[in-house]
């Protein structure tokens, strides 16, 4: 599996946990790695929002996934 280096502003949310903000370090067909000061617990469902484009009016891509590493 090939991982592609990328720097995309990202929001991570998990039920009952705080928002984690960061940037992707890389993206693959089956996942992405987000570098962030905050972390989410592993083995939990999470909501991921990728923010592309200008800061004032970014395109938002919403994804559902699982946090498998922290």
In DSSP terms, counting alpha (H) and pi (I) runs of 4 or more, how many helices? 0
Mean pLDDT: 89
How many domains in all?
Answer: 1
| SSE sequence, one letter per element | EEEEEE
Which class best fits the helix and strand makeup? mainly beta
Beta-strand portion reads: over 45%
Spans of at least 5 consecutive residues whose pLDDT stays below 50 are none
Kindly state the number of beta strands: 6
Fraction of residues in helix: under 10%
Rg (C-alpha, Å) = 12 Å
Terminal CA distance? 20 Å
Main beta sheet, described? 6 strands, antiparallel
- The shape, in one word, is globular
Describe this structure in words.
The chain is mainly beta and 70 residues long. It has one domain. The protein contains no helices and six strands. Strands 1, 2, 3, 4, 5 and 6 form a six-stranded antiparallel sheet that branches. The two termini are 20 Å apart. 6% of the residues are buried.
Task: Break the fold down into its secondary structure elements and pairings.
Layout: E1 4-5, E2 9-13, E3 20-28, E4 31-36, E5 44-52, E6 59-67
Antiparallel strand pairs: 1-3, 2-3, 2-5, 3-4, 5-6
What are the key terms here?
single chain, 70 residues, 0% helix
Summarize the structure.
The chain is mainly β.
């Amino acid at each position: 599996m090939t991982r592609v280096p990328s720097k995309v502003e990202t929001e991570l949310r998990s039920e009952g946990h705080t928002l984690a903000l960061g940037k992707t370090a890389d993206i693959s067909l089956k996942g992405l790695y987000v570098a962030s000061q905050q972390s989410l617990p592993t083995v939990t469902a999470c909501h991921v929002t990728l923010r592309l484009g200008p800061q004032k009016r970014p395109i938002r891509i919403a994804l559902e996934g699982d946090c498998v590493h922290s």
